[in-house]
Specification:
alpha/beta
């Protein structure tokens, strides 16, 4: 038995998949650039509302939580969360405006206490939402 007819192929090097990966990334980039420019332009006569002079004030019916955890509603101190929820005209929804320096753990604790007291939905009002 000879080795006639059988060729021994050398060790084949695997192709580098980086070229294919670069092509896919490039095609995705082109797709998102094209998709982003295909939106309809706004009506040229439309003038958007300017909020540059708008004063950001918390809504009057929101529960304000200070950085130290103290709570106020319409300027009055709130000592008991259950009494606060019971006094709400909309028992299903409570709006909360937390101080930026309030620790997140305290905000979660107060939110859970509001839900346990009967608030169906707790909405946190942020700076952009004002």
């Amino acid at each position: 038995m000879g080795s006639a007819g059988f060729r021994r192929s050398g060790v084949r090097k695997g192709r580098e998949p980086t070229i294919a990966l670069i092509n896919i990334v490039f095609l995705m980039l082109v797709f998102f650039l094209v998709a982003g420019t295909l939106t309809r332009p706004l009506d040229p006569e439309l003038r958007l509302v300017s909020v540059a002079d708008l004063e950001g004030v918390a809504p009057a019916d929101a529960l304000v939580i200070r950085a130290d955890g103290g709570m106020r509603w319409r300027g009055e101190v709130v000592a008991d969360v259950a009494d606060f929820v019971a006094a709400q005209p909309e028992a299903g929804r409570v709006r909360v405006v937390p101080d930026r320096a309030l620790p997140a753990a305290d905000l979660v604790r107060i939110g859970r206490a509001l839900r346990a007291a009967g608030a169906g939905r707790v909405v946190i009002v942020t700076e952009r939402g004002l």
